[in-house]
Amino acid sequence: MSAPLLQVKNLVKQFPIKGGILQRVVDRVHAVDGVSFDLAAGETLGVVGESGCGKSTTGRCILRLIEPSSGQVVFDGQDVTTAGKDELRALARDMQIIFQDPYASLNPRMTVGAIIGEALTIHKLAPTKAAYEARIVDLLETVGLAADHMRRYPHEFSGGQRQRIGIARALAVSPKLVVCDEAVSALDVSIQAQVINLLEDLQEQFKLTYIFIAHDLSVVEHISDRVAVMYLGRIVEIAPANDLYSNPRHPYTEALLSAVPIPDPQVKRQRIRLQGDVPSPIRPPPGCHFHTRCPIAQKGLCDVQRPELKTVGAGHQVSCHLRT
Ligand code: SF4
Known about the structure:
This protein is of the alpha/beta class. It has helices at residues 55-62, 85-94, 112-122, 129-142, 159-171, 189-206, 217-221, 241-246, 251-258, and strands spanning 6-19, 24-39, 44-48, 70-75, 78-79, 95-98, 177-181, 209-214, 226-231, 234-240, 310-313, 316-318.
């Protein structure tokens, strides 16, 4: 079997909180707390969890847009975590990101052509002006926009079109891995479906590998080969998508899944309502982070011992003392 394209090993990110006159570190936000997974070339891993679970921070640490506190990220055999400035610039050609907010992530003062072409200039990928313009036209048409859009500004486009511009910008350098960081979360449901279909077509065309981050299991269902569910900085369940949706094992996954609407009106899921809010990542609960909201938590076990991710089926791992 070939080596995975991406290996994430025990990734940790803590954000220091400073206070007092001397601005000393008085606390830490435990945003990512020991995340590990592998990703094969051409695969899509959906990463899901409530706001503040660390999914976006994980994506950004993988790309080193945020410095990890510890752990290791290996991309295509190269250690990303120890890469120097020049190596990181070269890696940026292979690893790109599409951001959530198409309104905020495009510079309003730049034309669409300049936004998409920026990376071509940085990485010296267009030797002549004609080659530069031809590449931009090609990228615009690839994402379903028109050649004459290159001279217009982001405010002239709808939300879905702006996200297509963001996708074209990411594709400009012909990456291998794209982190889609809540890339469709700000869009209407019908536009979401169009953008997801586009991403699937592009994946096939350019053999892309995706990490697709969303807060809703229904959004990632269609596009993901595997899904990882995160809670307070940890992966609590990871499995092939079919398996996770048909046979969820972690109580948190069950609760998230119970909120996903089923298109068949004859079939009704029983909604599992979790008690309380997600605890603060500054002082996450001891033992299993989920024990304060878990409907089946066992006192003396779940509030004391951290459950490790253990294999419960083919490619299916769950972090729970009671689910085997
Ligand atoms: Fe619930 Fe305990 Fe399992 Fe955590 S380890 S999910 S608290 S049963």
